[in-house]
Design goal:
Four copies of one chain form a homotetramer. With 331 residues, the first copy, chain A, is of the alpha/beta class. Chain A folds into two domains: 112 residues, Rossmann fold; 210 residues, 2-Layer Sandwich (Dihydrodipicolinate Reductase, domain 2), CATH 3.30.360. Helices cover 40% and strands 24% of the residues of chain A. In chain A, the strands form three sheets. The first copy, chain A, has a seven-stranded mixed β-sheet. The first copy, chain A, has a six-stranded parallel β-sheet with strand order 3-2-1-4-5-6, sandwiched between helices. In chain A, strands 13-14 form a two-stranded antiparallel sheet. In chain A, β4, α4 and β5 form a beta-alpha-beta unit. In chain A, α4 packs parallel to α5, α5 runs antiparallel to α12 and α8 packs across α12. In chain A, 53% of the residues are buried. The interface between A and B is medium-sized, with 35 and 35 residues. β12 of chain B pairs antiparallel with β13 of chain C, so a sheet runs across the interface.
Chain lengths: 331, 331, 331, 331
């Protein structure tokens, strides 16, 4: 299989390195990125490079594209790739506008190519284990899901301004996780937000802390708490409570030492951010993408999954603005 | 100090045994309870007994009363005890009617006696530790509190019907805990409930599962999840997240063994219900009550604490009924 | 049942308080202790008191005696009590001389009274759980036992000098635990000791640190490590490895909080010393003693158990002195 | 840097894959292995291949060799490589004969090339953390080290027969770890062994279970327990106790889920064997090897380290045979 990679910023590099190191039967035919830094990086790896994303779509050898360019380029690029008959892995979101996302998905659907969204956390070994145990009925009907999702520190204000806000940028992963673990659709959202970390985030029109209640179609519930700043590091946990038991997933740690001193027992902090915590999930998701293409199977994360998570994020934004529960039907 | 105990059902017996065993300088002058079973139990201990609660109030030797009689007797008894100048420890709630509670508190206030409400969980060693660390500033400003509070199994339907409902009967402890840990007043409540455990609970007009969001005056938040049935036992945990760190309290366990077998690593379930889990807290709260009387100090849990928790419970009930956030000002 | 208590120092007080608080059907007929401090303590409890241990043996009402007097009084007192037909609970050891212990046990045996030795750790909930799981075959044949047993700090040198040494005074509990968990007899002992904590302990002819290897009759093995000083508190753990699995028992803790700060994750130290760690085991062992008398059943810890642990301690002392493995047959 | 790899069995493949994937500046110039399977494997990777190990030594481009061929080829190959001026990474042991090892080390010493032994566990993140904390004085003087080292299942009897026995083949890693963590030399060894897992191992002249006591030059101590069969998987833990604290390292796990069911709390078993548990350590050790060459620095695991661990293993064998402590001076 031959692939093209659009964008080799932080996340694009992860995918590129993973593919080079772990997928010997995947050929990286072309990497495109408008930046000089990217050009140097790619040349050092002896790969073909272009400053123009569109060269990937125009390359007839390319079977599939990995889209890691900025969000505002996603929609156009995905539509072009689909028209060119190339399978697509795209980092979330497809676009910040719901209408535009629907257009893209319609287009992709008609083109017949496969599209996978980059909700990488689904492929984290801990969450995979929880998912598998819930699916196998270990806890009976899942009733209450609780997700903790906190970043070690806020992004730059410049990023905050174009991010789409905490729900669209950060919590959207948790909304997807909620649908994934519960295997049900969300019917209603109530969110409460606050600016507790940095006033500048509030000045930029966003929040930095949130508690969100999701109600599923059958009346079961989820709670998600988000913060842009956990001083002890990246905090990514969940627990799901069901009629027959409960499942928990903890953070991952760089080591498992324990130190017993005169002041107490001490251990290491969790792995600090997503590159460290989700190393395996990035690898697993790429593997899943290539396998789905090879086996002509359904993508494990579809464009509709992205759409649904986005609807929840939009409902959460309205909920905060109007201080009321918002039905997904309104979106 | 001489005390009288009104009611020696499940909780009254705990207090009586604790006092007899651990408080040698407290004399149990009279125990009252209308039941024959109680009479036999008290006679066996060679204590004075009456079938009539009012005999406690009428006994001039009695300095303080422990009120463990049914909820519907609390208000009258507390008022009579206050008029008789006796200090009062009363199991929650003072009454199921907010107006009546206010009357009782007014009366108690004017009488000058001390009143302590039985929010025993405040005295659990784990929660005490968390409280003390939050107070000492270990986590900076507390921003998000999460409480898990699940019973091992639902009470009988007959009890459900007179209990005041899940919020007034069960979650009220968690509402008090939220105020205690955060040391702030709740401004707004949003609750979502469901009948997921037993339809009969729904038929009785109650819910058996709930997710409640509390917003404090300063915009910080708490989430509480309740279930009437956790098959793995009594689940009583909390975590509080702040600007400078996070604190967690786990359940207590009957032992700490770990078994490594071919199927995994196994440990014991949490202590099964409140009598086992909160053994120490019951002892500590009685100690706190007697100490406050001896030292003429403020009670660690006041009548107003009961009132505030009750308001939150009432707001939660309205929130579910009307599916909207409810301001505490409305109550 | 009427009992007498000989000696109300630290451990005698524990037993007395436990009996007064938790065993309402046991009457404490007489307490004896030569000290003025003890006299005052006992009078305050309105119990009969004598300065002379022998008054207990001479009291016809007394059915059973609890021996908590200094070690050098144990043998004579136990013999007198046995002659007087009284059942005996005796703190370990019966005597520091093996020959004398054998005499006492012979005498007790012929008298027909029941004798229980105070190896209280057998009644700790964690070790009870391990014992029960080993007995039920959860790990198949136990092959390797590892015991960690460390004190928070060394006793005064004056005590060290009369204690019988680290093996006879401290490790003897672990030797008993090894026989209890493995349910086999020890055939050979190899011990290595060192003075790593305090030179004064070495000057007193003792060691403060030791590693002991026990070989059981069937070739299975145990390792015990002892230290007189763990700066982080009392460390009492074990693990037993078998053909079908492994079991571990950890320390107990005053609370289970976890604090996540910028420097790591922190928890409380273990309960600091035996009075706190073994609170429940002291209660359980007294219960077992009274029950065995009432039911005319075998004592759960016999005089022979004390003898066997003592032999292992003596073998360990020889092993260190002669730097060689010592067969129990030599003792 | 150009390297040659001698032997691509299980461990050789790990090193080869790690180098190809993670060390882009290291060129694999030649791989040699007498087997057809290896030939096919290497050709698939488009690398140069020879059936003859000696071709690596003869290749002038090769700067360094990775020796993963069978133990009985190590000594000759290392000597030849040293004579040819190539740096050497060699899996342990250099040879099963102490005299031969000394010859090889002498030869290597005179040649001036660098030699690193494959004690990969030194590079495990958990043990690295412990080592670093011990070195920085976190626990003061280390006094007692305890190592648990158990395999999930025994190797084939054919392997047992040529392995050099449990101490030389398996425990030698633990002996190295003991020297590494304690940073002291061993003065005396006492070992006790047994055949508890499989009689056939005993018939082959070996043991499958052992408890070993190490005494260091300064009187501090270590205990190591080994078993060839832990039904719950690969068990690799240690704890080191010192004057100022204690450090523990636990196993690694495939995930960190916890399941609360009606029977207890359950978690996953440890990673099953060395390829999974020590994935990172294999990578780290190769990195350390290349770095030491590039920086012309001392190798982090020297030939003498291999020699010392081997002496301890030989002393342990004598100790079991003669049932006595054996001084390292005897070896």
């Amino acid at each position: 299989m031959e692939i093209g990679i659009a964008g080799v910023g932080r996340i694009g590099k992860i995918h590129l390195e993973n593919i080079l190191q772990r997928f010997p039967d995947i050929d990286v035919t072309l990497v495109a990125d408008p930046s000089e830094e990217a050009a140097a990086y790619v040349h050092e790896k002896n790969l073909n490079f272009s400053y123009n994303y569109e060269d990937i779509v125009g390359n007839k050898e390319v079977d599939a594209v990995i889209v890691c360019s900025p969000t505002n380029t996603h929609a156009d690029f995905v539509i072009d790739a689909a028209k060119a008959g190339k399978h697509i892995f795209c980092e979330k979101p497809l676009d910040l506008s719901l209408g535009r996302v629907k257009e893209v998905l319609d287009m992709v659907h008609h083109s017949g190519v496969k599209l996978m969204l980059g909700f990488n956390r689904r492929f984290d070994p801990n969450f995979l284990k929880i998912k598998s145990m819930v699916s196998s009925g270990k806890i009976g009907d899942p009733q209450i899901l609780k997700i903790t999702s906190r970043d070690p520190g806020p992004p730059p204000i410049s990023y905050v301004k174009v991010s789409g806000g905490l729900f669209m940028d950060m919590a959207i992963h948790d909304f997807d996780m909620a649908r994934y673990i519960m295997n049900k659709e969300v019917a209603e959202v109530y969110a409460k937000g606050a600016v507790l970390v940095d006033k500048a985030i509030g000045d930029a029109g966003d929040i930095d802390s949130a508690l969100t209640t999701l109600v599923f179609e059958d009346g079961t519930m989820a709670n998600i708490d988000n913060s842009r700043k956990a001083v002890y590091g990246y905090d990514q946990r969940l627990e799901v409570f069901g009629a027959e038991g409960m499942l928990k997933a903890d953070n991952n740690f760089p080591d498992n030492h324990q130190y017993y001193g005169t002041e107490g027992i001490h251990g290491s902090l969790p792995l600090n951010f997503f590159l460290e915590r989700y190393t395996t999930s990035y690898l697993n998701e790429m593997d899943a993408f290539f396998k789905a293409i090879k086996n002509n199977a359904e993508m494990p994360v579809s464009g509709d999954d992205g759409l649904e998570a986005m609807k929840i994020a939009l409902a959460a934004k309205i909920s905060i603005r109007e201080n009321r529960p918002v039905s997904l039907n309104e979106i």
